[in-house]
């Protein structure tokens, strides 16, 4: 158990927290210790969603054991584009509403957890009349919900982002309330805060079996076996495997797909908004690092397919990683020429857990009391609100209406 003892005192790298008055979360009853039947919880998966749930449970006095076969943000959460948004393609309306609440929760979360959130809005456009019409119609729809989103021309874009060349006369969707984070730093900060509240992190620990006892659950790992009152399954791309262990009877996600994310070393401030367009997407954090994503995807060659079979998070060689990163940066530099001077900090491959119908799966299955599911794409956007509401459902024994469209029984 040396790993447990070591991790109970580990701190993540410090991040900047936005200054301002403390704002108490309407969803986080952090001053109210729970007094229910759930006292000890195992959270399987230390991505950003699992870390958020573990943090929220721990700060309310619950004994939390956070398990991961590698460590915090080892998969999708550590290799995510990390755009925090609620946008026109988020349907149905209940999903858009959930994401909107999570944007608000990020502002509040930053008052309690040492995270850096860059609130620069977002700009999205495509070099196609068909896509422009689609975006415009979507923007009109979410404006009826009150979303601060507009279609703007290139002159307005230039006012907003002097260093950005859209290379197009198409209208651009501008949303003023969106932002971005560094996904790995944010996840590790949540884990650190959980530890400060008395939680335990066990990394690496591979879950071998989960079984029901009369009034508890046993979680068997290659480190030790834990007896708990409830198990949270937030296992990312491994959620189907864990779901089979507990006898859920259905898969939750499609086969994971890869995404390449390049992070640069800090650069002079060049761009404020998240930029998302036809062949690239990128944003700059407050500390100067630029995060860039690839749109094209990996080549469909036998060599690449064989390599991707094992869901790797890194390239087989540094040379190949640098070549790929140079291509990603070169594409983005068409829009922000200063990117050509970027120095690469990291090149990662993230595997995205996409639920079967694209919507989150959140809550306790009616057939499996003592199990709580949390499977979703856009985990970086949803982590704050899901963490708060999951803790309420688990510790207060309530069913939150905001989550009613995302139960597993729909499958």
Write the layout of secondary structure elements.
Layout: H1 2-7, E1 40-44, H2 48-59, E2 63-67, E3 83-84, H3 93-109, E4 117-118, E5 122-124, H4 129-143, E6 149-152, H5 154-160, E7 172-175, E8 179-181, H6 183-196, E9 200-202, E10 207-212, E11 217-221, E12 225-228, E13 230-233, H7 239-245, E14 257-264, E15 274-276, E16 280-284, E17 290-294, H8 302-308, H9 318-332, E18 344-352, E19 361-363, E20 371-375, H10 379-396
Parallel strand pairs: 1-2, 1-13, 2-9, 5-15, 13-20
Antiparallel strand pairs: 3-8, 4-8, 5-7, 6-7, 10-11, 11-12, 14-17, 14-18, 15-16, 16-17, 19-20
Query: Regarding quaternary structure, how should these chains be classified?
Result: single chain
Share of residues in helices: 25-40%
The whole-angstrom Rg is 21 Å
List the secondary-structure elements in sequence, H or E. Answer: HEHEEHEEHEHEEHEEEEEHEEEEHHEEEH
Give the total of beta strands. 20
Taken as a percent bin, the fraction of beta residues is: 15-25%
Q: Sketch the major β-sheet.
A: 8 strands, mixed
N-to-C CA distance: 39 Å
Report low-confidence residues grouped into runs of 5 or more.
Answer: 1-6, 8-23
Neighbour order of strands in the largest sheet: 6-7-5-15-16-17-14-18
């Amino acid at each position: 158990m040396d790993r447990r003892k070591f991790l109970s005192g580990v701190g993540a790298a410090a991040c900047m927290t936005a200054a301002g008055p403390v704002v108490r979360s309407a969803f986080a009853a952090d001053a109210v210790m729970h007094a229910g039947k759930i006292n000890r919880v195992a959270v399987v998966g230390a991505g950003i969603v699992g870390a958020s749930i573990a943090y929220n449970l721990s700060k309310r006095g619950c004994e939390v054991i956070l398990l991961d076969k590698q460590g915090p943000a080892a998969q999708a959460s550590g290799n995510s584009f990390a755009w925090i948004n609620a946008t026109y393609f988020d349907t149905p309306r209940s999903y858009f509403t959930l994401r909107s609440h999570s944007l608000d929760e990020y502002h509040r979360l930053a008052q309690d957890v040492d995270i850096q959130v860059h609130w620069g809005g977002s700009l999205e456009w495509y070099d196609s009349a068909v896509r422009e019409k689609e975006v415009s119609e979507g923007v009109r729809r979410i404006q009826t919900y009150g979303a601060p989103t507009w279609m703007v021309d290139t002159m307005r874009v230039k006012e907003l982002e002097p260093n950005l060349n859209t290379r197009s006369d198409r209208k651009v969707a501008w949303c003023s309330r969106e932002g971005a984070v560094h996904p790995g730093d944010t996840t590790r900060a949540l884990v650190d805060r959980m530890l400060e509240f008395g939680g335990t992190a066990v990394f690496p620990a591979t879950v071998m079996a989960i079984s029901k006892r009369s009034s508890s659950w046993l979680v068997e790992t290659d480190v030790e076996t834990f007896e708990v009152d409830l198990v949270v399954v937030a296992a990312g791309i491994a959620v189907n495997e864990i779901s089979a262990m507990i006898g859920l009877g259905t898969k939750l996600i499609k086969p994971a797909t890869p995404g390449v994310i390049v992070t640069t070393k800090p650069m002079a401030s060049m761009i404020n908004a998240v930029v998302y367009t036809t062949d690239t997407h990128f944003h700059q954090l407050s500390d100067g690092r630029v995060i860039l994503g690839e749109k094209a995807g990996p080549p469909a060659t036998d060599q690449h397919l064989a390599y991707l079979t094992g869901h790797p998070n890194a390239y087989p060689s540094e040379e190949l990683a640098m070549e790929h990163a140079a291509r990603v940066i070169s594409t983005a530099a068409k829009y922000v020429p200063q990117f050509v001077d970027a120095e690469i900090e990291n090149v990662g491959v993230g595997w995205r857990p996409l639920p079967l119908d694209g919507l989150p799966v959140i809550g306790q299955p009616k057939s499996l009391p003592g199990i709580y599911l949390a499977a979703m794409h856009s985990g970086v956007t949803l982590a704050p609100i899901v963490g708060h509401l999951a803790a309420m459902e688990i510790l207060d024994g309530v069913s939150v209406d905001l989550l009613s469209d995302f139960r597993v029984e729909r499958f």
